[in-house]
Design a protein that fits this description.
With 297 residues, this protein is an alpha/beta fold. The protein has 2 domains: 2-173, NAD(P)-binding Rossmann-like Domain (Rossmann fold), CATH 3.40.50; 177-264, 6-phosphogluconate dehydrogenase C-terminal fold, CATH 1.10.3660.10. 51% of the residues lie in helices and 13% in strands. It contains 12 helices and 9 strands. The strands form 2 sheets. A 6-stranded parallel beta sheet has the order 3-2-1-4-5-6. A 3-stranded mixed beta sheet has the order 7-8-9, with helices on one face. Helix 4 (75-82) packs across helix 5 (100-106), helix 7 crosses helix 9 (219-225) and helix 7 (175-201) crosses helix 11. The longest helix is centred in the middle third of the chain and has 27 residues, at 175-201. Bound molecules: NADP nicotinamide-adenine-dinucleotide phosphate (NAP). NADP nicotinamide-adenine-dinucleotide phosphate is lined by residues 9-14, 34-36, 39, 69-72, 74, 78, 95-97, 121, 124-125, 128-129, 229, 232, 236, 297.
Length: 297
C-alpha cells in the first residue's frame, strides 16, 4: 500500500497500526521516530520498524506516508520540524483525539504538494507505549477522517483503505463536528472518571480504605479509565476546550436537575430519566459497540 511509512511518535496507537502493516505487508519500509532513545530501543527489540532515529527529519525523508502519533501538544513543533523535509506528493495523517487542531497546527507548516488527511481511530485502552499495542485494537471500531475541502481524493482513499485494512469502518465528517461529538462521547466521560476518582482520593483515610475495598460497585471502572495517560488527556482538554466547555455547561445543568429531584424526593423524574437512558444503551448494543472492554478516545 505504501513504499515508505514514517511514524512520528510510536506508542499504543502507532505501534498497533505498525503491527497491522507488518502483518499484512502494507509498507515496504517503516521508519520510527520518538522523543526518547528508550522508546526506540523498545521498538527495535520488538522488531516493529526497519529503521529508528531520534531525528524526525531523517525519519520522514522520502516517506510516502507520515503518520503523526504523538500527543496533541507536540503537533505544532513536529509539523514545523518535518515540513521542509517532506517529499512532493507525500500524505501526512494523524491519529489524534481532537481534529480542529490539525488545520491550526499542522497544515500551515506543510509545503505545497503534500496532502493532509487527519484521522481518529476511535479505539484505545488506558495503556501507553509501544509494548501496549496490539494488531486487533481497531477491529470492528470506527475511524473518523476529517479532510479539509479540496484535499486530493486519492490521498483520502489511501488513508481510508489503510484503516479498513485494520478492521475499521471509516466515516467522514468536519473537524468541528468531530470535536463536538467526541466531547460528549469521550472527553466528558473521561473527565467525570478523573473527577470521581480524585474526589475519592481526597476523602478521609478511613473512607478511602472502604472505597478501595468496595470498588466493585461501579467505582472500579472509573479507576481504570482514570489511569489513562495524563499528558495525552491534558492535551485533549486544552485542544478541545470550546466543545467541552459547552457540553460541561449542559451537563452541570442536568446534574443540578437530578440533585433537585433527589432533594425533593421526586422519584418520577429520576425514573423518567433512567428509562430514557436505557434506550441509549440498547442503541449501542444494536450498533455492536458494547463488546470490547475498552475506553474509546
Ligand atoms: P503514547 O502511547 O503515550 O505514545 C506517544 C508517543 O509520542 C511516544 O512514542 C512518545 O515518545 C511520542 N512523543 C511524546 N511527546 C512527543 C514530542 N513532544 N515530540 C515527539 N514525540 C513525542 O500515546 P498513544 O496512546 O499512542 O496516543 C497517541 C495519539 O493517539 C494521541 O494524540 C491521542 O490523542 C491519540 N489516541 C489515543 C487513544 C488511546 O486510547 N490511547 C485512542 C485514539 C487516539 P516517547 O515514548 O519517546 O516519549
Amino acid at each position: 500500500m505504501f513504499d515508505r511509512v514514517a511514524f512520528v511518535g510510536f506508542g499504543l496507537i502507532g505501534s498497533s497500526l505498525a503491527r497491522i502493516m507488518i502483518r499484512d505487508g502494507l509498507a515496504g519500509h517503516i521508519s520510527v521516530t520518538a522523543r526518547t532513545q528508550a522508546t526506540l530501543d523498545t521498538v527495535t527489540r520488538l522488531e516493529l520498524a526497519d529503521s529508528v532515529t531520534l531525528d524526525a527529519t531523517e525519519a520522514v525523508r522520502d516517506a510516502d506516508l507520515i503518520m503523526i502519533c504523538t500527543p496533541l501538544g507536540a503537533y505544532g513543533a513536529v509539523a514545523k520540524e518535518i515540513g521542509p523535509h517532506l517529499k512532493d506528493g507525500a500524505i501526512v495523517s494523524d491519529v489524534g483525539s481532537a481534529k480542529q487542531i490539525v488545520s491550526r497546527e499542522i497544515v500551515p507548516h506543510m509545503p505545497d504538494g503534500v496532502h493532509v488527511v487527519p484521522g481518529h481511530p476511535v479505539a484505545g485502552t488506558e495503556n501507553s507505549g509501544p509494548e501496549a499495542g496490539f494488531a486487533e485494537l481497531f477491529m470492528g471500531r470506527n475511524c473518523i477522517l476529517t479532510p479539509d475541502d479540496g484535499v486530493a481524493e486519492q490521498a483520502i482513499e489511501k488513508i481510508s483503505a489503510l484503516w479498513k485494512a485494520a478492521g475499521m469502518s471509516v466515516e467522514m465528517m468536519s473537524a468541528h463536528h468531530h470535536d463536538q461529538v467526541l466531547a460528549i462521547t469521550s472527553h466528558l466521560p473521561q473527565l467525570i472518571a478523573y473527577t470521581i476518582v480524585d474526589t475519592a482520593e481526597q476523602l478521609g483515610e478511613d473512607l478511602k480504605h472502604e472505597v478501595i475495598k468496595y470498588s466493585a460497585g461501579g467505582f472500579r471502572d472509573f479507576t481504570r479509565i482514570a489511569a489513562s495517560d495524563p499528558t495525552m488527556w491534558r492535551d485533549i482538554y486544552l485542544e478541545n476546550s470550546d466543545a467541552l466547555l459547552d457540553i460541561l455547561g449542559r451537563f452541570n445543568e442536568d446534574l443540578t436537575h437530578m440533585r433537585r429531584a433527589i432533594r425533593r424526593g421526586d422519584g418520577d423524574t429520576l425514573h423518567e430519566v433512567f428509562t430514557r437512558t436505557r434506550a441509549i444503551r440498547r442503541g449501542i448494543i444494536d450498533a455492536k459497540q458494547d463488546k470490547l472492554e475498552d475506553q474509546k478516545t
